[in-house]
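Changelog-adjacent note: as of this version, every example in the card shows the full chain rather than a window. The one below runs 204 residues end to end.
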Amino acid sequence: MIDYRSSLEPNKFYHIFNHAVGNENLFVEDKNYIFFLNKFEKYMVEFVDVFAYCLMPNHFHFLLRVKDVNQKCQTALKVSDTFNNRSSNYNVVSNAFKKFFTSYTNSYNKVYHKRGSLFQPRFKRRLIGDEKHLLNTIIYIHTNPVSHGFVSRNADWPYSSYNRIVEKDKTRWLKSDEVIELFDDISNFISCHNRISALDEIEL
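Full-length structure tokens:
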């Protein structure tokens, strides 16, 4: 079930995705994809671990595990301060997403002489229920370009984490080793991705 408001709780996995407004694209040149990921790194990696991502021309997908930001915040609070762990974690991570999207939108609009919102309001999130759901979501995200007919092979799409994981890229915020462990090894990771399964379409 798609959700717009559920709390982003620490140590849980979420499929985060969103779409451009109307008929707009989020990315119109190669450099936009790179710039988007740089913005993501700047605003988000302090708060989340990344297990998969895919950037498409008019939408994006991330599979994230939320870090427990309260552990950092707690040390800065006085004993007398009231502190709700769940709500504070949700607010910090959600605010980071808001800053990330706003920063990218402002830069995009400035370069392409546009105005207004670029992303649909309220990014979507799905809580990952179990390991099977986790594995299927990783596969779904990486096979998105094939499913949409942009390429015939997962490896041919340069704007996902698929090649980075296969090539054991050491991007500090991408949990490549943990992903491979979930699939047991690289061979099984590739094999599972090549068997395009009948996963449910996600309504964006």
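Structural remarks: The two ends are 12 Å apart (CA to CA).
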